[in-house]
Amino acid sequence: MRRFNLRAGGLSMLALAAAIPLLAASPAAAQQSPVPFDAVRGVFTFATGLERALPAVVQVTTLGQSEGPSSGENEPKPVSSGSGAIIDAREGIVVTNNHVVEGGRKFTVDMTDGRIFDAILIGTDKATDLAVLKIEAGDRTLGLSQIEVVNSDSLRTGDLAFAVGYPLGLDQTLTMGVISGLGRSGMGDRIEDYIQTDAAVNSGNSGGPLLDSRGRLIGINTSILSGGGGGNDGIAFAVPSRILMYVVAQLRESGEVKRGTTGVILGSLNAERSRAFGLGIVRGAVVEDIAPGSSAERGGLRRDDVITRIQNRPVSNAGTVAATVGIAAPGTQVEIVYLRDGREGRTTITVEAPGDRPVIAGADAVIARGAAVRLASDGLQVFSVEGGSVAAAADLQAGDMIRSIGGQPIADLAALAQAMDGTGERTLSVTRGEDTVEIRLP
């Protein structure tokens, strides 16, 4: 420890010595610095770019029916609050998180200038944890600001990032960090392709924007990874603008998000499966099965292929593929790189419009209402759940063993496909560890 401190002190002195010529430079020389310089005040600052965005960062309050004994008041009470970003000032469009508005009956939007507006919910998408609100002006002139949106595909690890929101009951707060990683996934049953940052994000920042150093929106803050205390540990995740703008456009158009399909049933590569395949990697998406007649089948994919890249993006797990396909319009050509018996192959498959069938059956797996199921040694096992699906909303989880549907025992995939086909609610009895759980699928 003592040696470490000495080294740290030496490095600090070297850094300070290196910085002195820069700090002592004339304003004219400082103007040539990559860090913006305010000659009037004699300071380095990013305020000029960021200040244009800050008036468009709002506080979102969700109100719902109060619980407990009746008080004689019927007005909904605040149940949660978060942040949001105005991306269309003329129409009063605010984007925030689904979990900020979930369960709400009424919504209000607080501006930085002290004004407060009611808002209506245009639509939500649980799979990406996004929601769109529209400010209701009434007889008032909106006079809003909006944030410029930039394509998140231009981001690089190490870029500066600024998180803005209303954390922990404070007024609007700005924090700075860097882009710590890109394409993060594996945090749950959602469409995940997160931006990771170490900019301080806490409770209340949810739904607020992640900005670049010019004050442009690159993502919407959605979650943190905490070591147990529930506070900021320097690991936060944001939905990238590439996904955000696709989802917002669909919600504004129809109030829901319709995602395409390729007919491939995927699982995630892990160390155990990698050893079984004789591979030296642990990142990728394993093709569990292919729906007959699907685009994936026509593209030549086979069971046990390991997808390593999609649209020239590295694949971490099945979520990476779902995120790419999930924001691709039907007809989009998707380029895939895969491993088969250790050898690399390439193919192109077409994203198709989602069918009306609630069940997709392959030879060795079945997808029913978003849950992918295969036959294991002790029964029918759910091995993945599509983010935002009916199965995910009903809390069906990977690893669950399906024992019966509607009180009838289910022993094989054919019986499962038959029982799940058609419309109407299904009640599944599943074992989860040593517990038996009843799952209702609408």
Defining traits:
single chain; 442 residues; alpha+beta; Thrombin, subunit H; Pdz3 Domain; 8-stranded antiparallel beta sheet; 6-stranded antiparallel beta barrel; 19% helix; globular; disordered N terminus
Protein model, in words:
19% of the residues lie in helices and 37% in strands. The chain is an alpha+beta fold. Among the domains are: 152-254, Thrombin, subunit H (Beta Barrel); 264-350, Pdz3 Domain (Roll); 359-441, Pdz3 Domain (Roll), CATH 2.30.42.10. Strands 21, 22, 23, 24, 25, 26, 27 and 28 form an eight-stranded antiparallel β-sheet that branches. A hairpin with a 2-residue loop joins strand 23 and strand 24 (379-385). It is globular.
Major β-sheet, in short?
Answer: 8 strands, antiparallel
What value does the Rg take, in angstroms?
25 Å
Strand content: 35-45%
Proportion of helical residues? 10-25%
Q: Any guess at the CATH architecture of the domain at 152-254? A: Beta Barrel
Distance between the termini: 59 Å
The mean pLDDT is 84
Poorly predicted runs are 1-25
State the total count of DSSP E strands. Answer: 28
Q: Please work out how many helical segments DSSP would assign.
A: 10
> What is the CATH level 1 assignment of the domain at 152-254?
Mainly Beta
The CATH topology label of the domain at 152-254 is: Thrombin, subunit H
Based on the structure, what is the oligomeric state of the protein chains?
A: single chain
